[in-house]
Amino acid sequence: MNIRSDSQFSHQARSTNLTRTEPDSYYFGYTSGRWLYNEQQQLEKRHVEFNVPNLQKIASRIVSSQCVQMTKLPEGLYNKVFSLRMDNGREVLARIPNPNAGHPRYVVASEVATLDFLRNVLDIPVPKVLSWSSPSRHNPVGVEYILMERVNGRQLSEVWDTMSEAERFGLVKSLVEIEKKLVSSSFAFHGSLYYKDTFPYGTSIAKSFETERESMSSFVIGPTTQRSFWEDEKQELDIDRGPWETAQEYLSAIANREMTCIRNLTHTGINDITVPLGTTPQRRDMHLRLLEQFLTVLPHILPPEETLRPVLLHHDLHGDNIFVDSEDPTKISSIIDWQAVHTAPLCMQAKFPSIFDCDDPYPWGAVQPKLPEGFDTLSQTEKGLAQDRLDRLRLKKVYELASRKFNPTHIQAMDTMRNDDDPTSFIFHLIRRSSLDGPIPLQELLMQVYEKWDGIMERKGSAIPCPISFSNEEINKGRLQVEAWADAYGDFDALRENIVGDDGWVSIDEYKEAMHKWENNRATLMELRERVERLL
């Protein structure tokens, strides 16, 4: 494994002859996009100052070569990445987390251990870490960082449009094989991976595998780096961040976290003007009572045991995070961006990779997608759109069927969480952001749990009476509330998505036009937001 810490050479690094073209301050701020609202707050969450010369010196020391060029690469929302080129032709990538990435010590220490585990224990192609630093008090750079090799191959996003359907199907198989390794490797606890010498109070993971390997003895499970436990003001809250032994403990911690947010945060989401919130004392009390009811029924509505195993899964498999062989795009050469990946119940993580997913109506199971009836009567433009839709659905279907054959546990977990007749299929995902969504959606699902309790228990082979109840008057009133809320939120969300997206981020090139659109529609969006809030 041989991953070095900067303490081994921080005071020995030789000087470099870097030709400077940018001031240090250029490296500190976010420069890859703009926000249509709350821009200063968003920029502050992504501003991090560090000692640039010392970072270059450490990278030079690692590869025994002088750094001659440092380039800031396009940024994600949680990290800064720099390319450091050496005079011998080598390239080192430096990755520095932004303040919004979570606790910097945990985030970096866990990502390094996770990459090591994936690469050297599970034999999954991920970047090779050369050095890292945590905690920062022993760090001449002044912030946590990771230095790693640039991966081989090309980003999938660069070659996707030129790949044939057969090549894309081949890529599906390659990714399913990697996911099978991940799903087959269950852990004893829910949390995040660390090195034992970095986090000595963590829990050993070796006992959770069929064969205890010596290489696993250096890893432990510690507090989760899952962003929903750290984002925005949550970093300051005293909440349980694990590790947790059971799925019930993990899900209880999520519900308790949301209750703490409701009690303590004046406006979850840092004044996000596109998030409707009901903040009156009566609404807060109602919301807290509903979350208590969820905790009451939780032990009885857990998904099947085989889907509750804690596993590691990548959460963002899009074209920029997958690298493929330069000569054969069906072969995956590396998967990047494992920051905040954590062990959690399989059923809470199983989903289609975004590169193979689409929003088109999807025929689940053995039903094959096909062209629409009357295809021959469509115009050429309509035929082209229909064929594109079929291509997307065929790719998604190939992924589903390949997973059913080679990684069936993964698809079974997805099956479990998509039963339209069972409200427990949706309630666990809803709980994760309940403090943002307000009480109405949770109330509706809990009422459905109460109404369908006997059928839910029958499927589980139990006859336990429902421990929560709603009167007919409460149900009738609740149904009117959720109907009005759904109509109002639908109008609000459609306009929000059209003018600002999830958080108001736009590319620099699109900023002027997007800002004009936002200013023209802002008042209408605020009216729709207030309409939703009145119903919460």
Automatic annotation (TrEMBL):
One Gene Ontology molecular-function label: transferase activity
Instruction: Enumerate the InterPro entries for this protein.
Output: Aminoglycoside_PTrfase (IPR002575), Kinase-like_dom_sf (IPR011009), Mito_inheritance_9 (IPR051035)
Keyword vocabulary terms for this entry = Coiled coil, Mitochondrion, Transferase, Transit peptide
Q: Name one GO cellular component term.
A: mitochondrion
List the coiled-coil residues. Answer: 508-535
Work out whether the entry's keyword set contains Coiled coil.
yes
Instruction: Domain (Aminoglycoside phosphotransferase): give its ranges.
Output: 71-191, 285-345
Q: Which SUPFAM superfamilies match?
A: Protein kinase-like (PK-like)
**Top-rank taxon, per record:** Eukaryota
Q: Where in the cell is it found?
A: Mitochondrion
Q: Which family does it belong to?
A: Belongs to the AIM9 family.
Which protein are we looking at? Altered inheritance of mitochondria protein 9, mitochondrial
The scientific name of the source species is Aspergillus avenaceus
Question: Organism classification, top ranks?
Answer: Eukaryota, Fungi, Dikarya, Ascomycota, Pezizomycotina
